[in-house]
Fold these 4 entries.
Entry 1:
Amino acid sequence: MCSARGTSGFWLRSGQVTLSHTHHVPHFDLQIIGGLVWILVASSKVPYPMLQGWVMFVSVFCFVMSISLLCLYLCGAHGGGSCWVALDAICQCTAALFYLSAAVLEAYTTYSLGLFPILAHQYRENIAAVVFAFVATLLYVIHKVFSLLRWKSS
């Protein structure tokens, strides 16, 4: 079922194999953590709507992009082409940079909310959003490293 092989043993797989062996980290983690960031940011109220808008854009964009790539891999649409390895690497790099910027902006917003003790509930919600945004950043960086290794070997 494996369709393209690089010299260092990284495979571009399709079907059920995609879920467990494409990366050394499970693929559904990006969707779960990204969805949590999306929900937490949507439920929080921040004094800077432009920052919240960017964080929402990043979380929704990366969530849709990851789901789309996962569905295409599950369907076997890549057909063994090496351009799909490059597309995966580009998407993972873009998502990692976007999530890093969103996590830093969300952390800044949370820090500014911490200066006002009246907004303690919103502060706790934003702390959770910041933690999950940095976890999502870490996961995208891990996926980026494996995508770049697979791209280099193809």
Entry 2:
Amino acid sequence: MSVTIVRYRTRPEMADENERLISDVLRELHLSAPDGFRYLAVRLSDNEFVHLASFDEGAMPITELKTFQTFRAGGKERWLGSPAFTEASIIGAYGAWGSMAPRDPTRATAEAAGVRTEASEPETHPSEFAARGGPS
């Protein structure tokens, strides 16, 4: 199994857009459910993003997704510098990282600013996904 970690920082004014594009990729991954592929993306408080992708032998399927191609196409405008790629080995894991649906970055930003938002679907805590057997 190959594991790649990608880290980069965005321009502050582009961080929400970057997160939205990542959420689009995650939604497409949830729909296509490629075998042998695991993906996790996190946003740090300083607008640094970290992506962890692990995949079995063969091509990394994320590069074939239209949403990922869109995400990569505008990277130079959003990112400060080039992303740093690192190969890694997984020591172990605990919990159900793969069962979390992407969050709505617009809602998250508004809530962080103390603004209450109306959402068509409430965000689900990861423990609720586990209780239901994963995302529906």
Entry 3:
Amino acid sequence: MKTILVPIDANKEADLVIKKALEVAEVFDAQVHLMHATSEGHSKEDSDFGSENLEPENLSGHEKEMKNLNVFKSKFLDAGINCEVHLAKGVADLEILGLAERLAADLIIIGLIQHSALYKLFVGSVSNEVIKATKIPVLLIPVDHK
């Protein structure tokens, strides 16, 4: 296992996912790719727009997300783990799956937030959609969402 993809959302639960990803990456001496997908104006219905990676010159309005990614990246670098960050614009699960494929990721580590059945019915779950659509092993990190 050499490449681990760690999709994170900018919330307090991300710390738990990062902690576990650090542990796994150290054990396997793996490279980590942190990513965050912003879904501004995109839905699955118009998912034919394709993936749009946000380059530094296109970061206007996304500085906070990039700052968060770089804060997490520094934790990996401090531990001696090679880490890269990716900020994508599009539907989260599709962006995660696309990047995992492009990186030839060996593992996806993602947080699992428990939502009510009603929430899942109307909104869905990114982690659930990733699990259903990938052949790459997925490590789910359960997080409290209170």
Entry 4:
Amino acid sequence: MANGWSVFISLFAIVGLSAVVWVFAPKGENQTVWRSSLILTFAACYILWAITFMAQLHPLITPRRSNLRPEAHSDPRLF
């Protein structure tokens, strides 16, 4: 089962991966484009994943049972 540390562990992994991209980006006139594209892609994917993960880890709305019939609430034998 996943816990809250997954967000921080993956953040450190993304920061490390971004540092690797910064150092090993292909040299040339498009080096800045390569760096920017890859680092922004990593950051955007991480933010999307982190928000989705945290929303599932701590939901704001409690799930409700949908299989209860309204007439079942009035019958005391069903409780």
